[in-house]
Automatic annotation (TrEMBL):
<keyword id="KW-0805">Transcription regulation</keyword>
<protein>
    <submittedName>
        <fullName>MarR family transcriptional regulator</fullName>
    </submittedName>
</protein>
<dbReference type="InterPro" id="IPR036390">
    <property type="entry name" value="WH_DNA-bd_sf"/>
</dbReference>
<dbReference type="InterPro" id="IPR036388">
    <property type="entry name" value="WH-like_DNA-bd_sf"/>
</dbReference>
<dbReference type="GO" id="GO:0003700">
    <property type="term" value="F:DNA-binding transcription factor activity"/>
</dbReference>
<dbReference type="Pfam" id="PF12802">
    <property type="entry name" value="MarR_2"/>
</dbReference>
<dbReference type="GO" id="GO:0003677">
    <property type="term" value="F:DNA binding"/>
</dbReference>
<keyword id="KW-0804">Transcription</keyword>
<keyword id="KW-0238">DNA-binding</keyword>
<dbReference type="InterPro" id="IPR000835">
    <property type="entry name" value="HTH_MarR-typ"/>
</dbReference>
Amino acid sequence: MPLSAKGTTGGNAHIIMFLARNRDREIYQHTIEQKFCITRSTASRVLALMEKNGLIARESVAHDARCKRIVLTDKADAIVADLKANGERVERLLVDGFTQTEQDALHDYVERMRANIERAQHEFEHQTSSQTPSTAAPEYSEAEVINTKEENK
């Protein structure tokens, strides 16, 4: 793991990379809640800690004073650069010995799989958003998710 990311938890790294990939969008706490399937209180706690650690900043938006857009800081940008470089290094190791044709084919397969995942995710979000509150899937706290994962090991 890159040195700049050593103090960053896996969850924080995922949020940082999500924010980095979506710089062209306005991302709010509720966006993080939906994307990572976490409760409002968990998102609030995680984002507050990330803000305290200088990884994100919350900026007011003109159209709604209650909304705070989440943006990366320079400190987080350094982590993004290191994580990307590390990812590229790992990718080079993974495809070592592959021909360029094989690498191109693999890249195509992975991109198609990613598109399938995104399509399925959008379909799921559409289905769950059309459900009434009484039939919607329950939200779980971070602790409940961790406990469930531990029980399934």
